Amino acid sequence: MTEPSGPRDVVVEICVDDLAGALVADRAGADRIELCADLLEGGTTPSAGTIRSVFRAVRHAGVQVIVRPRGGDFVHDEAELDVMCADLEAIAALAPECATEVGVVLGALTPASRVDVAAMRRLLAAAGPLPVTFHKAIDATGDLPAAYEVLHGLGVRRVLTAGGPGTAAEGADVLAELVRRSAAPGAPEVLVGGGVRAAGVRSLLDATGASSVHLRAMSPSPRGDGTLRTDPAVVAGFLAAVGRGRADGAAGGPDGAVPDGDAVPDDAAVPDAAVPESRGGAAPDPAPVRTAVVAVDIGGTSFKGAVVDDAGRTVRSLAVAAGSTGAESIDRVVALLHDLRAGARASGHDVVGVGVVTPGMVDAERGVVLFASTLDWTDVPLGPILSAELGVPVEIDHDVRTSGLAESLFGASAGVADSVLVAVGTGVAASITSGGHAVRGALTAAGELGHVPAVPGGEACTCGQVGCLEVYLSGAGVARRYAALGGQPGLDTAAVVARLGTDPVADRVWSDGVRALALGLTSLTLLVDPAVVVLAGGVSRAGAALVDPLRAELAAGLAWRGAPEIRLSQLGTHGGRIGAAVLAFRAGGHGHVVDSWSRADLLAE
Ligand SMILES: [Zn+2]
């Protein structure tokens, strides 16, 4: 019955931020739980009630309680250290109520990003007999092996690290070095965390030599409010991926496939691509059927559709031109969906949901496109229309907001709770993510950065205002101003950028544009305080010609605070399709499959 395990037993620690998540991880067979509050902040000290409830409830998994008084950096003053020591003493006092091993997770750095030895001595003393894990603060130190040796000297039991500021895969070389050092007597165990997923964990373990991994195993909450919950299917899928027996009942039949924590009902029985479904009884030779969705990205002039399978791969794609009227465009979307689904069926894919992203103003909750000028759509109930046509759940949303979702899951702002995606194409629009949640606004019109005033009393915008940002920096704006100011007519943004440094008109148009965007981003930064601004859209392909002066202007415009980091999109024009596929799997009740998607698979076409 028991599967032979891999070359070594892998210890799996699941990070959770509530009792339900702890129970899911415990029942699924995780070795340890890291208990936090507020994972969207990166994890802070959980409440005494949460700690006691988890201590009393777990039966198998050890419990590691994080002691971190707030989000943000790891530089703690005396007052914060007092609080942390009080929390540590309280946890030590509760620990006897737990049937399994209790430990604590903490960290303290100096302002120069080195291990704060004095603070650590205080914290270790307060932890008393509880084993101490030094958390990912170590990844913020420049020299991880040096920090690791300091922690060894302090008597820390374990170090949670990605080997650097990126993902564990990116830090694999440093992780391998730390694992080598962990063979020394009394050296801390290396617990690998940071973008660890079922897909790729085997190669990560092989590359680093590590045998302990740490991950969140979350999918969107069924509450539909944008919060996350620990997903039993994700935990089970991960344990199966590291060769741990309890989740690999797939070969044995439908029953044992997923240990389903009953505290959190889960709709989906079959977690992921590793387990082909079979259609029992319908045909003499049932072909394996894979779950898939149809993702549609509606543009002003064409509609692009794709069949995306449960591994995030595009298995079929098709594009059609927009119709000449609003009604004709709806008919074309319907026809596109029927074509794609027929093709999906032919290749053995079962379409469980549809995701559609459109420009304009979108009421995602009701599935209604309130207004999309380029498509001549007003109050079009696109979601209900398509759902009735296809008989599967359909989710629709705004194109830029959905690209922002995709970028924050798989792209340039992955893992960043506060970010803004700015799409600079024909026009300009932004997707604002605040505290991990998309900001929609009262009219679902939040993020209209293109129409933020950038030049008081400036040139007229098609929207009826004057001096809008996108009049100065957008594909349409740059081309129009270049011609209007005496440049050669008919050149697009790329051609104008190619003339920088040799054509004074190009220089002027571009610097006006960059200044307008910098002003818009200055306002945005002061209002919503993003950590990262991601630039997407056709104009962002200008690359350094845009980003370098923009960084300088933005930094110059912010006198008393730092500027957010500006990054270029990693998903490019694929963001709409990828985000639409995420919406579709969520609509179809299979939202957890996206947890194991890799950017490489998503971008392969
Ligand atoms: Zn405007």
Describe the secondary structure blueprint for this structure.
Blueprint: E1 11-16, H1 19-28, E2 32-35, H2 48-57, E3 62-66, H3 78-94, E4 102-106, H4 117-127, E5 132-134, H5 144-154, E6 158-161, H6 172-181, E7 189-193, H7 201-208, E8 212-216, E9 218-220, E10 228-230, H8 232-241, E11 290-298, E12 302-309, E13 314-321, H9 326-346, E14 349-358, E15 361-363, E16 368-372, E17 377-380, H10 382-390, E18 394-398, H11 399-410, E19 419-424, E20 428-434, E21 437-438, H12 469-472, H13 475-484, H14 493-498, H15 504-528, E22 532-536, H16 544-557, E23 565-568, H17 575-587, H18 599-603
Parallel strand pairs: 1-2, 1-8, 2-3, 3-4, 4-5, 5-6, 6-7, 7-8, 11-14, 14-18, 19-22, 22-23
Antiparallel strand pairs: 9-10, 11-12, 12-13, 15-16, 16-17, 19-20, 20-21
Helix pairs in contact: 3-4, 9-10, 11-17, 13-15, 15-16
